[in-house]
Amino acid sequence: MKITKVYDANIYVNDGSVHGQASEVTCPDIAAVMTDYKSLGMVGSAEFFNGFDKMEATIKWTYPESDIMKALANFLKPVDLMVRSSKAEYDGEGIKEEVPVVIYLRGYSKKHPGGSFKPKEDTEVESTFSVLYFKQEIDGDTIVELDVLNNIYKVGGEDLLAERRQNLGI
Predict the structure, then answer these.
(1) Phi/psi at 10 (nearest 5 deg)?
(2) Residue 117: pLDDT band with limits 50, 70, 90
């Protein structure tokens, strides 16, 4: 039996590590938009792929450095985020190996948090991002890549929208 565990992470903002400044990150889900289809002669209806729903990510900060706060306060410039983790594989003899899990995100900050301050409690703030680009790699192998603005959707390296882009002339 093989057991895999992924826990802990580090976040990079615009290529700079923010190690120790965040307490939690929630990466977006990729969700398909499905369109209903029914016609004469069909005994039922069906749903077909018709694009993707918007993606959103959140980061809970213990309190980030000023340069990170400035980058996140600029709603007009995209932010590059990278979430790095490690996937440990165990077998009957213990840990077998660890491989990197990396998620790349690009998007726009949606709000600049002011924070909530309480006596004798840590102050946490939360940033929310509208994500336009998502790429997930495990041990250097690309699992999925979605670039909303450039109509790119790849799964396992296969470009599933190449023909559509060609048909549209883009």
Answers:
(1) -130, 145
(2) confident
Q: What is the residue extent of each domain of the chain?
A: 3-31+53-141
- pLDDT tens-place string over residues 4-29: 999 899 999 999 999 999 999 999 99
Nearest partner of 82 among 162, 13, 4, judged by Cα: 13
Residue with tokens 């093989």: 2
Convert the chain into a string of H (helix), E (strand) and C (coil). CCEEEECCCEEEECCEECCCCEEEEECCCCCEEEEEECCCCCCCCEEEEEEECCEEEEEEECCCCHHHHHHHHCCCCCEEEEEEEEEEEEECCEEEEEEEEEEEEEEEECCCCCCCCCCCCCCCEEEEEEEEEEEEEECCEEEEEEECCCCEEEECCEECCHHHHHHHCC
Cα separation, 87 vs 134, in Å, equals: 19
**pLDDT one-digit tens code per residue, 131-142:** 999 999 999 999
Cα separation, 98 vs 89, in Å, equals: 6
Query: Which tokens is 71 given?
Result: 């980058």
